[in-house]
Amino acid sequence: MVDDRKNEWVEMLRTSVSVKRTSRAVLCILLLLLPVTVWTVTEFWRETRLVDIAQDGRNKLELYRSNLQGAIKEHEYLPITLASDNRILNLATFADPANAAQVNVYLEKLAADSGASDIYFMDRDGTTIAASNWNSDASFIGRNFSFRPYFQQARRGETGHYFAFGITSNVPGYYISHPVRSDGVTFDGAMVVKTHLDTLLQRWTKGGESVLVTDENGVVIISARPEWRFRTLEDLPAKNRPRIIASRKYGDSPLELMPLTDGQWPKGDELSVLTLSTIPKDLSDMPPAERAEKAEPSSTKTNLGKTTYLATSSSLPKQGWRMFLLTDKSVLDRSTLSAGLMAGAAHVIFAGLVFIILQRRRTMLEQLEIRDWSQRELERQVRLRTADLMSTNLRLAQEINERSRTEDALRSAQTELVQTSKLAALGQMSAGIAHEINQPLTAIRSYAENALKFISRGNSDTANRNLQRISELTDRMGRITSNLKTFARRPEQDNQPVDVHEQMQKAIDLILETGRTGASNIVLSYAPDLKPVIAEPNQLIQVFTNILNNAADACPSDEDAKIEVHITKGDDRLLVSIKDNGHGILPENLPKLFDPFFTTKPFGDGLGLGLSICYGIIRSFGGTIRAKNRPNGGASFIIELRYDAVTADSGDNWHSTQNASTDKQIETPHQSESS
To answer: Who contacts 311 (Cβ-Cβ below 8 Å, separation ≥6)?
Structure first.
């Protein structure tokens, strides 16, 4: 016995040591995987952010391009409109000095009103003979600009577009030209409008975005960063550089390279990484010529600060320009670093949690071992004193068996009680059905006897009418017995497209035939072009008849009784509402109105199955039925029915055979007679 207890203690110690070693090994593995986790999350986050930055850059470029094109098109209409102005046409034809003076004043006022920088007219040789700046020292009058590309484009019959420095003003601007033809064919000159883009540059600068636009020569002509303007993305070809400088397209700008130190400019829509050196502001604020003289040697530029950008580009095909958006890469680096730190922290926390769980597991195992040992020790002690306990257990088992038999007997009695209640309900239902069938049987017997007499007399027409009445009464008896059948089980039905208005009219006709007091004034209104619903026609008439009967019973018996029936179209369902001006429904009865065997009528007047059956029928159609009280008195039943899926898509075709009309209102014959 002592040896067994000693072996158990040794086994417990071995288990504790094994669990401790496992915990330490798992912790070491998790810590070794920390760099892998950080690297994986960092790379995934970097790739995701690059995709987001690229998409965001393309979206922003699209907005900037729209702004630029809008600024260009702001004055595009002016040269086109002025080219057909009579004053310009007369000046192009006769070149009268007096006429030119009037045109100068007109162009001056037009430039001030439109916000254009300059507006001027050149004759067929390219000499300016009228200009909005005629009264300034830098007037264009008398100057020849035939060498400008925009004049050459106008001479070819095109609308010219050109960005360049002004020869006279040395101020950059965008030129728009249009040919002037006095006879509609011959080129008589060109109408030119020069517009500044200062407003656009100011908006871009305030936005804080690094945006730049290059022309067909790769020269930055528009930029939110002033130090980047009129620099080239790449070295100009040696053969083209003298020609470009001689054209004075860029004024006195030295056309230095952009301070690109690493990477390359994007050629398409892809995202590129590039590094630019920072240009000192004292140099960027200087005029181009002075900046070229005072610029530091290239060897010192490497000491300047550098910024790495993520660049996206977009093209402007009409002008032959490209637009670039530069996003500071430090945003991506900071975001990636944060993601890596968060991943590392999460990994460390996870490792700590795993270690804590393993430690708790070791503690729990030790506690379980101690508990098991204690349990075994306790069992040894218990086995010494089991005699009395075994007898007690046997006695308790017998008591438990006896209690179980008692509970089984109780459940059987309860089941018998429920069955008895059901039989009582069925007896009440049978009595009600017998009462309802008795009247038609009496009438059938009377009609049958009369029919025999009429047949013996040879009066076949009257006999046929009596037989027809017998058939109708038989149908009525069938409907009475079918109510119980419908309540007892779900009927097998063949749902089909049904015209609700037609079935409602049949139900109203049945109600009117009964001669009920409250049913003498029924008003039916329905929307035109009603779509068919999914239902079984006879059962739908049964529902309408039952609700109309209840409404008639609830209405007062005097001439003020009124039942309103409205059929309206919903988006996906047809709505049928039946309203009365009776005493309404007690609020406490509304929740159980559709329960089986619930009725507010006196004993013997109803079984409480009518509304329950109606509820089951409407649910079998896939519809709903509900009741509520009207604010001014009376009750309202609302029925929602599903449209037919086939005819709903071609509702106009289904109604093509029906007469389209406005909302119709049908009055009962009793109502018409009273009116």
So the answer is: 263, 265, 266, 271, 272, 273, 274, 324, 325, 326, 327
- 661 assigned to some structural domain: yes
**Phi then psi dihedrals of residue 394, to 5 deg:** -65, -40
Domain span at residue 503 reads 490-674
Closest CA to 57 of 319, 314, 317: 314
CATH code (residue 569): 3.30.565.10
Query: Rounded to the nearest 5°, which phi and psi values hold at 314?
Result: -150, 150
With beta carbons less than 8 A apart as the criterion, state whether 75 and 116 touch.
Answer: yes
Do residues 469 and 500 both lie within one domain? Answer: no
Q: What does the pLDDT read at residue 423?
A: 47
Q: How far apart are the first and last CA of the chain?
A: 112
Q: Is this prediction's pTM over 0.70?
A: no
Token representation of residue 537: 């026609």
Q: Quickly list H helices, 458-556.
A: 460-488, 500-514, 537-554
User: Is-contact 530 505, C-beta < 8 A?
Assistant: no
Q: Are residues 650 and 515 in the same domain?
A: yes
pLDDT (tens digit, 9 = 90+) per residue, 489-547? 444 557 889 999 998 998 887 777 666 667 778 899 998 889 999 998 888 888 888 88
Give the strand order in the sheet containing 563-569.
Answer: 624-629, 635-642, 573-580, 563-569, 522-526, 664-667
Of 427, 444, 475, the residue that ends a domain is 475
User: For residue 99, which amino acid is it?
Assistant: N
The encoded tokens of residue 457 equal: 């007399």
CA–CA separation, 83 vs 80, rounded Å?
Answer: 5
